[in-house]
Design brief:
The protein has about 450 residues and is of the alpha/beta class. Helix content is about 25%, strand content about 30%. Bound molecules: S-adenosyl-L-homocysteine.
């Protein structure tokens, strides 16, 4: 076992799923933040376990040509970005490598080719911001939490966020201070404003600002709206989201419009989408289009095909694919998203798409019972992946192809192994980087029936 606080030499030979460097020191795996493959250090052990330890770089002995100077003053303390210390070339290499290794290790399959589609823009790409609000040294502040804590770091600008989000955050902080509006204290469960949630529509430029509040109303709501209207160009909607629950869940269920529209609208893959506050929408517009184009290519639909899109959100993939298919069916758990999806079909004049609000597994089982036999099934589940019964039901439907869009390669690989047992073999994989500077990456795998 390594000794806490002791210094050791270390060389980085791999990365963890969340982007830390891995070195092997005296037979023990040491995880080191801000590290780069091939670099050699003197490290200090900050936590020593039996087989694993956490280390901190004390001195860089051999420096990678991919090391860069951090362009964000908060990068070292903020938990938002994982890769501000390395260039985008190395980030893309490590992401593709991680997907390949995980598919091999947990899925038992190594794709022949694994293209990673990198982003053209690695800054300001997020269309959704969620800033926690807290009192810091007696003043209302909004920013981000320090990595792995709930300690708020006030920031004046985030490089991943766009200009409207940074402006909205500033305007709300001014409102809180000017009118002495109380800020939520998560330990005492007192005070009002918990989070500032900003969503921007890239193409239309429409902006939604939502204050998540431990209560049903705010003092001086009119003044808040006025301050936002003066500071945020494109503002279309100001909402109050009620979240009176204890704990870490951010979004409430109830929303009240304080000013403007109840939802905003964006254009994606040439289609118009209504976005209400609770609906899922990919945070990187440019790369979401790349992702959906790749998914459509792998789905390879003909005008005779029926496509089932499980976990469809506001129907973005469903409607994109409906244009190439005879019929498209979307299934999603969040009611507001399905309402958006139905409106989105109407708005785009798409008549061959229908939507159900249900759990994906239950809906698939019902459709199977009703005799629905989709030619292609698309799934885009949350990080936990597919429940075993969903894999089973899809296989029973007997589609010629399954296109699996995944935000977590470990659960994707696990589900590939389950599909294989049921006669579906993975054929092609691609990665799309929707989250530059962060450890997440999206992958798509096409499975076909043997
Ligand atoms: N394909 C969409 C949404 C993907 S995100 C897009 O690209 O925009 C995953 C979606 O799965 C979310 O909208 C979430 O609400 C939904 N979801 C989560 N659990 C679900 C379940 N058990 N059944 C159906 N949908 C679910």
């Amino acid at each position: 076992m390594l000794t806490t606080s002791a210094i050791y030499p270390a060389e980085i030979t791999d990365y963890t799923a969340d982007g830390m460097g891995i070195a092997h020191v005296e037979g023990c795996a040491v995880f080191i933040p801000n590290a780069i493959f091939g670099e050699q250090y003197r490290i200090r052990i900050v936590h020593a376990g039996k087989n694993k330890a956490i280390g901190k770089i004390e001195e860089i002995l051999v420096r990678s040509p991919h090391r860069i100077i951090r362009d964000c003053p908060w990068a070292k303390v903020c938990g938002g970005c994982d890769f501000r210390h390395m260039d985008y070339v190395e980030e893309q290499r490590l992401k593709a490598q991680r997907v390949r290794d995980t598919l091999t290790r947990l899925g038992g399959w190594t794709p022949e080719k694994l293209p990673l589609h990198g982003a053209e823009s690695t800054q300001g790409y997020r269309n959704k911001a969620l800033f926690p609000v807290a009192m810091v040294h007696g003043k209302a502040e909004a920013g981000f939490f320090r990595a792995r804590t709930h300690t708020l770091i006030p920031i004046s600008e985030c490089l991943l966020q766009n200009d409207p989000a940074n402006r909205a955050r500033q305007a709300v902080v001014e409102y809180l201070r000017q009118y002495r509006v109380s800020v939520y204290d998560e330990v005492a469960h007192t005070g009002l404003v918990r989070h500032i949630y900003v969503r921007t529509a890239e193409v239309t430029g429409e902006v939604m600002v939502c204050l998540i509040v431990n209560g049903k109303k705010l003092p001086r709501e009119k003044e808040l709206c006025q301050m936002l209207r003066e500071s945020v160009p494109g503002l279309k909607s100001v909402l109050l989201g009620v979240n009176e629950k204890k704990g870490n869940s951010v979004m409430g269920d109830e929303f009240r419009t304080l000013w403007g529209a109840d939802a905003i609208e964006d254009v994606l893959c040439g289609l118009r989408f209504r976005l209400s506050p609770r609906s899922f929408y990919q945070v990187n517009h440019a790369q979401a289009q790349v992702l959906y184009e790749k998914a459509a290519r792998l789905a390879a639909l003909t005008s005779e095909d029926t496509v089932l899109d499980l976990y469809c959100g506001t129907g973005t993939i469903t409607l994109h694919l409906a244009r190439q298919a005879k019929e498209a069916i979307g299934v999603e758990l969040v009611e507001a998203a399905i309402e958006d999806a139905k409106k989105n079909a109407l708005r785009n004049g798409i008549e061959n798409a229908r939507f159900f609000c249900a759990d994906a597994g239950q809906a698939a089982a019902r459709l199977l019972d009703e005799g629905v036999r989709p030619d292609v099934v698309v799934v885009d589940p949350p990080r936990k992946g597919l429940a075993p019964d969903v894999v089973q039901t899809i296989a029973q439907m007997g589609p010629k192809r399954v296109v699996y869009v995944s935000c977590d390669v470990a659960t994707l690989a696990r589900d590939i192994a389950r599909f294989r047992e049921l006669g579906y073999a993975p054929k092609e994989a691609e990665c799309v980087d929707l989250f530059p500077r962060c450890a997440h990456v999206e992958s798509i795998v096409c499975l076909t029936h043997d």
